[in-house]
């Protein structure tokens, strides 16, 4: 049997896509390896969201070519968003033999039949209906406790800075029965947590002659698989997250109390320019709604510093919003212009790099203080944690997440991955709750 090695970059959807790719490759006679040196097929499943993400991949393409030196017939493949964005340009380097876009993974067996270093192959067709709903992902997680399930693909928003709608195509929702079956299947194999994935899960919508299923209804169905199966989801969009979704979370003990709600900016002027289709006030109202129905809800976000024409006042608006909300955690980025996006076509990328970086550093520093405050507010409280495995720092300790997504560490009393434990929080850092048995 031939062996395939895949490195995964970018978002959680890509992690799940690599599992779909492994499953398809298995049918084509490839088993999975984690050793690049023994692989017959070396792949990267890639991300285009910021320029530095792509620069990193170019470095890996060089490394893959080094790794295959002197080993005849070893193939290098690029999958994912960068494959979709750059298409033939990847083949033109002479360093890549196989290019396959996010909706074309089913053609891998056919491409692999035809491919050789003299005959590179490409399929980057986007689809209106591909959801890989019948493919059982070959799980690559290490702990066997927490699994990703894609519930939709693509994105119909056109945030002006974002390349995703171009690399992933139009939004489509996956048939709910296949999602629930996948959740049942992983549960029966010992998994205790599923994360439902989509670029904008709140716009999940599936219809046929008999029924219409929205995201809240899908959550209810997945939550009913078992009270022992935790349900998480990402990513929510502030313009679409409905009261019904928040109420559904509040009503189900096993739907985790965590919402990732990317704000991007605290300035309504910037949000309009970003085409996010909500205002600062709208965002803050959604936060109040969440906090009123789920007081302990973990809330995390994404922030972009230095978008086109951002003034010092716009930046201060972002800081004041972050101060006001008090996010548990944030992913924070300097704006990176992406070719082909509305912003690249219409607005100059005019915030100087040193200003962008200074603003980003101020955002990071503020979030560091806020994270510590948020984590400290849990000291003395009880948390219910799903054990994932040994802690990275200390093998005598175990780690796992609380419902609100905070990472917890605690002394092992022989619990196994997949067990639930009741803990008391004794101390914290800005990213970990330090706990012990109650
Ligand atoms: N679908 C999700 C996020 C997708 S991309 C959403 O709508 O929120 C993940 C994050 O990358 C975004 O939330 C944004 O903060 C960041 N991002 C996207 N494009 C970017 C760009 N051109 N420059 C910098 N950050 C970007
Ligand atoms: Fe990109 Fe906006 Fe779609 Fe998120 S919602 S993937 S930021 S276009
Ligand atoms: Fe990156 Fe594509 Fe995800 S651009 S963030 S891998 S959808």
Rough shape? globular
Mean pLDDT: 97
Bound ligands, each once: S-adenosyl-L-homocysteine, iron/sulfur cluster, FE3-S4 cluster
CATH topology type of one domain: Rossmann fold
| Main sheet record | 6 strands, parallel
Oligomer: single chain
CATH architecture of one domain: 3-Layer(aba) Sandwich
Which value, in Å, is the CA radius of gyration? 22 Å
State the total count of DSSP E strands: 21
Content-based structural category: alpha/beta
Q: What is the CATH class of one domain?
A: Alpha Beta
**Hey, roughly how much beta strand do the residues contain?**
15-25%
- Helical proportion, percent range: 25-40%
Order of strands, widest sheet = 2-1-3-4-5-6
The span between the termini is 50 Å
Spell out the CATH superfamily of one domain: Methylthiotransferase, N-terminal domain
List unreliable stretches of 5+ residues. Answer: none
Number of helices: 14
């Amino acid at each position: 049997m031939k062996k395939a090695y895949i490195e995964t970059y970018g978002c959680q959807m890509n992690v799940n896509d690599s599992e779909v790719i492994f499953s398809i490759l298995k049918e084509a006679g490839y088993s999975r390896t984690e050793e690049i040196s023994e692989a017959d097929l070396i792949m990267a499943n890639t991300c285009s969201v910021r320029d530095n993400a792509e620069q990193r991949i170019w470095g890996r393409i060089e490394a893959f070519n080094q790794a295959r030196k002197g080993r005849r017939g070893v193939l290098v493949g690029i999958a994912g968003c960068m494959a979709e964005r750059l298409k033939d340009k990847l083949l033109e380097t002479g360093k890549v033999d196989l290019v396959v876009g996010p909706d074309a993974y089913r053609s891998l067996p056919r491409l692999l039949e035809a491919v050789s270093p003299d005959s590179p192959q490409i399929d980057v067709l986007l689809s209106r209906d591909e959801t890989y709903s019948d493919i059982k992902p070959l799980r690559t997680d290490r702990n066997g406790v927490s699994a990703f399930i894609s519930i939709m693909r693509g994105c119909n928003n056109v945030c002006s800075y974002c390349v995703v709608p171009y690399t992933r195509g139009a939004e489509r929702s996956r048939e709910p029965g296949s999602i629930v079956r996948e959740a049942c299947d992983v549960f029966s194999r010992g998994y205790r947590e599923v994360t439902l994935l989509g670029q904008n899960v709140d716009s999940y919508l599936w219809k046929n002659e008999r029924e219409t299923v929205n995201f809240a209804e899908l959550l209810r169905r997945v939550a009913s698989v078992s009270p022992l199966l935790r349900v998480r989801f990402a990513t929510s969009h502030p313009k679409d997250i409905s009261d019904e979704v928040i109420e559904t979370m509040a009503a189900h003990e096993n739907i985790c109390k965590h919402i990732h709600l990317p704000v991007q900016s605290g300035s309504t002027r910037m949000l309009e320019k970003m085409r996010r289709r909500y205002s600062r006030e709208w965002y803050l109202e959604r936060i109040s709604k969440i906090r009123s129905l789920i007081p302990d809800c973990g809330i995390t976000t994404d922030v972009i510093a230095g978008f086109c024409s951002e003034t010092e006042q716009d930046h201060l608006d972002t800081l004041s919003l972050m101060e006001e909300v008090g996010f548990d955690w944030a992913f924070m980025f300097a704006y990176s212009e992406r070719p082909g996006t509305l912003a690249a076509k219409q607005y100059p990328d005019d915030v100087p790099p040193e200003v962008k970086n200074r603003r980003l550093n101020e955002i990071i520093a503020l979030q560091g203080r806020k994270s510590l405050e948020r984590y400290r507010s849990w000291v003395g409280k009880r948390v219910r944690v799903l054990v994932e495995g040994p802690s990275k720092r200390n093998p005598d300790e175990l780690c796992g997440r609380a419902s609100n997504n905070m990472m917890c560490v605690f002394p092992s009393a022989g619990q196994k991955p997949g067990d639930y434990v009741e803990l008391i929080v004794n101390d914290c850092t800005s990213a970990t709750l330090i706990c012990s048995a109650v």
